[in-house]
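Attaching the record inline, Q. Sequence:
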Amino acid sequence: MPFLGGRRIASQHGEAYADWLTQVYKGTGDTDYVGYFFHRAAELLSPTGCVGFIATAAITDGDNRRTVLARLMQADTPFEIYGATTGVPWQGNAQVRVSTVHLGRGLPPASLDVKVLDDRRVRAINSRLRSGEDWPDPLPLTENEGGALVGCFLRGDGFVLDEEDGLAFLRKHPEEANVVRPFLVGDDLNNSPEQRAQRYVIDFRDMTLDEARRFPHALAIVERDVRPKRERLKTTGADADHRKHWWRFANTRRELRERAATMPRFLAAARVSKHTMFAFVPSSWTPSEQVVIFPLPTGTAFAVLQSRIHRVWVTLQASHMGEGIRYSATDCFTPFPFPARAPIATLPKLEALGEELHASRAAVMAERQEGLTQTYNALHDPECQAAGIVGLRRLHEAIDRSVLDAYGWRDVRVPAYCSWEAGSSEYQVFEDTVAARLFALNVERSAARVDAERNASPGPGGRAAGRAGPGPHKVTTTTSDAPKRLRGRKV
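Structure, as predicted:
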């Protein structure tokens, strides 16, 4: 079937066929099967013609976009996208969303003048199936490095204790509390009204075996429930290390531990969620690999990440799993330009609003006995007019306004919080404008970093090289469409 994910092609059709596809069409292991249908159609199509496909919504994600739509639009005889619909629920039994894409090439300009994206006329449709010309792939920003870290990969269910067993263990062996800690998973963040870790985990961090023996009762559980499986692993590669250090997690996330030691709380988000949602959790908890941790304890960071400004960015950068969004620390956080550059920076108004939203949201969740997902379902539902939900909408709108002001984008209007569910033109303009400006800001800041590195590099005489070209330019985006090359231009 054409909707296979890229990594399932080999299992369904054989590795030889999967390798042939990637070689002939320059795909990757993550290029979905339907992407190769686009390329095959381009081969068969005359130099003048049109083609249309139903694709998965993931056609705009990562390698799919780069190896399919972007490549077709940059070919020697380039295609233009003249029509698209995005995020349409599939009519069959599968709980997925699809996008339709119509492309043409070699046609008279007048025949492609009218482009339609989700039932609205636009000047251009880019490879992200957004209004406007293509934006460059964003580059990582130095100031964001280490600001988002994936939780611990255990490789052994035996490390985990359910809540009842964990509490019983701590009552019986309180002296071993240092290695039996609350274990945070994505479901706790998204579906628990209290956002409370509902499991415990035996966590020896980077201890040697001799150090772990100081906690004999916890070690006995791991030796019984984890070690036998670890000893069946291979004796090469990563398996060999996991086998040798059977009492430790497969990845103990040392950098995360070092950051956690310096602060009482940090922000967390489930890696896969229906909505983009963040919350403060105690830094003493051990997060699972399905949780992204942000060593950012400030209300400012919470306000920026929870704003719809960041949501616009995540929608374009994240991969999608059915109706869920997979938040990638590398793609969603590291290249994201914060308004004050440093993610750790505090801005007084945002600090106060962020703390107010987090506290008010927790109170509403406790009152309604609903987790984050249900709460944001209600926030996005125009029919829900409960007082607590309406109050949270107003707080979100106030945060959006303050975040835009922090960027200096006072000309951008904040749409009503439910407008994106209604597909309003006001929200579409907001989304296009914010996306263009964020991509432009990433270009500006990453260019400044490259220039700084170039200037710091020793020249032929051992001194720092002189400036190789013009410096970064101020980006003053005022329209909803970003040009193909942003650096040095007003857009």
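The longest strand covers residues 80-89. Confidence is low (pLDDT under 50) at residues 462-491.

More tomorrow.
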